[in-house]
Amino acid sequence: MARLIIVSNRVPSSSDRQQPAGGLAVALRDALKQGECLWFGWSGRQIDDADKDNRKAGAEQVRNVAYSTIDLTHSEFDGFYQKYSNGILWPLCHYRAGLMSYSRKDQEVYWEVNQLFARELKKQLRPDDIIWVQDYHLFPLGQALRDLGVTNPIGFFLHIPFPPWSLMKSLPDAEHLMRSMQAYTVMGVQTEDDARNMNDGFVQCNIAQKAQVFPIGIDPDSFVQQAEAGEHDFDVQRLQISLRGRPLIIGVDRLDYSKGLPERFHGYEAFLKRFPEHRGKVMYLQITPVSRGNVEEYRLLKRQLDETAGRINGMYGDFDWTPIRYITQPVPRHLLAGFYRLADAALVTPLRDGMNLVAKEYVAAQDEEDPGVLILSHFAGAAPEMEDALLVNPHDADEIADALHKALTMTQSERQARWGRLKPDVWRVTAQTWARDFMTALAGETHA
């Protein structure tokens, strides 16, 4: 059986290697069980620029998976990861080209690090390996490997959205980046919109490549177990006691401008203003772990959220009621599962998202006898397959307010009916089907 090579910007942490808890490690768990595997990527360590020629490679074997890592210098991390991947490609792919801060030097470092990855990975490749590259940090890696003579099948999957060519071409040298994607045997994206956008870009650039759709999901059975077990967790019970019988609205998002958090807060404020009967009788818990805290745009976003939450609490709060409980510390996955099960409504309102697995996790966590209501942005990748959620435009505060009121006054029978129609899709499109379908396509193209 051919060995599977996973390549990502960063490999899972040591604890995630033993017991995957979230993110890519969970999504790939089933694929990694199939046989011998190698996972290659950045170690997470930064070294002095002067030591670049003496950088260390790391290796650890966990059951059938070998984890191979390489260090980056401070300059490489800054140019490749901070400035180009997250300062250029991330906002561009989330339709926020105005937030790009382009430097040709950062672009050069981005390509150089991809070439570094290719050189280090090539040393470890076998002739029958199958390579699967993950996400926007590594768009050009396939071409860098081909330039070194690698002939193995190479698949690529983009976990975030892909913008229309009219927007993508605002990236200097965009055609060069698009052209590098010809190196991949299979190109995968999350949604039909993403495939249409990417394929239009290929056509505009006269490139012989075609993106295919492979929607990602969760492991619903495992998440149900966590949610049911969470009901008895001390911290979940603490939260339940603190509600004093009031319904709970929950939002869980990494701190990022793509998540529509200021717009969500304004929607909740409009809800309190327009439906005063809910004041003092509902609780909104927003969990927003800080990410990329050293990037100016994210510092400004955090300050904006801090100020907005404070203003809403000051305007509408009372001595025995705080309208928004807003925390920026991460919450363990098993606790989130319990919190989801406890929540009467979930606000999942990104301005643009690749898929958004929080929506699927919330549905999976519900008690079928008394399920909560999912309020979901039209612009989440999950929206087309979750039409029985309350779909909203996150830019419209009144629409969010109306959806919150509807969710909290909805009859039990309607909640059960909506959940009953949402559940099959969560179990139909899973992390397992995503990995299986992509690998099947890659194997099919390999033997074609």
TrEMBL record:
One BP annotation, GO: trehalose biosynthetic process
Entry-linked Pfam families: Glyco_transf_20
UniProt keyword list: Glycosyltransferase, Transferase
Recorded GO MF terms: alpha,alpha-trehalose-phosphate synthase (UDP-forming) activity; glucosylglycerol-phosphate synthase activity
InterPro entries noted in UniProt: Glyco_trans_20
Pathway: Glycan metabolism; glucosylglycerol biosynthesis
Domain of life: Bacteria
Catalytic activity: ADP-alpha-D-glucose + sn-glycerol 3-phosphate = 2-O-(alpha-D-glucopyranosyl)-sn-glycerol 3-phosphate + ADP + H(+)
EC number, UniProt record: 2.4.1.213
PANTHER family: BCDNA.GH08860, TREHALOSE-6-PHOSPHATE SYNTHASE
Family: Belongs to the glycosyltransferase 20 family.
Biological role: Involved in salt tolerance by producing GG-phosphate from ADP-glucose and glycerol-3-phosphate (G3P), an intermediate in the synthesis of the osmolyte glucosylglycerol (GG).
Protein name, UniProt field: Glucosylglycerol-phosphate synthase
Organism: Acetobacter orientalis
